[in-house]
Amino acid sequence: MSGSPCRKTRKAKKHKMNSTLKRIASLTSLCIKGPGGKIGILYCFIVLALNLVEIQLTLKMITWNKDFFSALEKYDAQAALWQIGVVGVITLASASQYLIATYIRQLVQIRWRTTLTQASLERWFSNKAYWHLNTDENSPLDNPDQRISEDCRIFVDRLTGKVLDLFTGLVGLTTYIALLWKLSAFPIAFTLFGTPVVIEHYLVWTAPIYVLISSGLTHWMGAPLMKLNVIQQHREADMRFALARIRESKEAVALENGEEAERNIIDRRYKRILENWRHLINREFILGIFTRPYFMTVLRIPLFLAFPAYLMGYVALGGLMQLGSAFTRLVTTLSWFIFSYKELAELSATANRLASFMQQAEAIGKEPSPIEWNRSADKQLHIRDLTVRDPAGENLLHLPELIVKSGEAVWIDGPSGIGKSTLLKTLSGIWPHCEGQVSLPPGKTLFLPQKAYLPLGSLAECIAYPDKPENPETIRELIKKVGLTCPRHEEQLRQATELGSDYRLSGGEQQRLMVARILATRPEWVFLDEATSSLDAEAEEQLYRLLRTSLPDTGFIVIAHREPKGLGNYRRIDLWNRKPLEIPNENLRVALA
Ligand SMILES: Nc1ncnc2c1ncn2[C@@H]1O[C@H](COP(=O)(O)OP(=O)(O)OP(=O)(O)O)[C@@H](O)[C@H]1O
């Protein structure tokens, strides 16, 4: 039997709830295991202890209500004045408790957020997850880069806020129930359909019924909020991404007068935000119809409910006020769920997003590599039976065998789109759609794409990237060597790297910087993907000559559409030829799939 649809939905909801709780627990344990995480637990206990002090202060305040109003009822000015002093002391203690607890709670947040952010970054960078993770519009993993900073903050904030409140609430609940039980030792009697009904301690029973009905209504009305909040964050992040992309490509946009087109893209994304926002505010409005009056009356209702006890003469005015405030505290504590609905929705949505990001990033490392990687002991790069495909599974290239000795140079050229860059991505180990065997010789390898990458930081850091920078004098010499000799270059280079304004350098100048990087990092193997395409032929030749003479033992694999003069003796892999290609070297046979 497959079960009724209703039961199935309930089962699915229960399963979802369980997996959310598991995710919250696993992220919390990650926070605790990090540096200073255990001290965080100690701090949480201190916050809990302070919260228990707050419960005691609340009990004092409930008693104060009785004493103060009794004094008023009796026109006892001296007692009333004394109670004003008492309330001052309680307020002072309560404010101190609140400030210290909040401060310690924030100390926990600093520790745990740091751990969670580090853990996310570790997964983001390890196995190049930032490259592999599918983050397009239809992916459930939206804008993970933005999530790392935002979700880690929200998760820790809600966890240390709401979960500690939950524990405090549970203690408070038992205390207030016990107090109300003691205070409301009188029954309420009425007739229902001709039958006399007497309910002892009726105020204690009324509170949970009142809150249960209210919580049920809140959940029913507010349930769609969770999904709408997730969609809203997704769309906001999409718009931020589109805006950041314009900043990144501002030169192309400005040159192509793309303002209107860009404006349309942003407008479309903003429209999607508005669409969901409308649903969100409608739903918040519906929820508010209930929660707003609830918040406003929650402090009055107890008085109305305790009123019959006053009329029946069970309590005096002071007792009524004491009952009212005890009932209010019980209802407020029970209402924790209602007051925290939005934040709880955020906590669960954030936990789900963060955990699924971490799971997906971890899964990347677990997938076996489609390439059989070996370490070659003979200082040769050895590729055997390598097939490179596109993501749809269509063959792009097939290399039966290619051996490159250290210090050798290979030039690969062929038509656009044939798969040259994809071949380099395969050799770097990031392209998953391939198979074959690759033996890499030991030593450093450097892959440089056509578009130079200038990381944010000092010029020395940019040149030495990804290694640690050398001394500034060496850097200055290297910059001169690659032809950036003009005095104005110094300031431009500083702005390009330190301020991230790489558009201040011409394409050729940026590529000269990349040549300086090869000279600074001195790799054993260099893979260049049209990395000199913006230079004029003469400059290109000079730079290749510089590379070959400075790094005579380095193997060069160069993808270029024009002959890399200056590279010295090189072998050519000509992918223009559509038939299997015989190259003079016996070891090198290239065929197009
Ligand atoms: N990340 C990717 N996702 C989907 N398809 C891709 C991806 N990268 C490359 N391709 C496809 O693989 C094919 C080969 O692309 P590749 O960039 O390797 O060509 P190329 O020979 O280097 O071209 P060019 O000389 O124009 O740079 C192209 O059809 C391209 O659309």
UniProtKB/TrEMBL annotation:
Subcellular location: Cell membrane
InterPro entries in alphabetical order: AAA+_ATPase, ABC1_TM_dom, ABC1_TM_sf, ABC_transporter-like_ATP-bd, ABC_transporter-like_CS, ABC_transporter_sub-D, P-loop_NTPase
Domain ABC transmembrane type-1: 39-346
Sequence ranges assigned to domain ABC transporter in this UniProt record: 381-593
Membrane association type: Multi-pass membrane protein
Transmembrane spans: 39-59, 79-104, 163-182, 202-222
Protein known as: ABC transporter, ATP-binding protein
Organism encoding this protein: Oxalobacter formigenes OXCC13
Source lineage: Bacteria, Pseudomonadati, Pseudomonadota, Betaproteobacteria, Burkholderiales
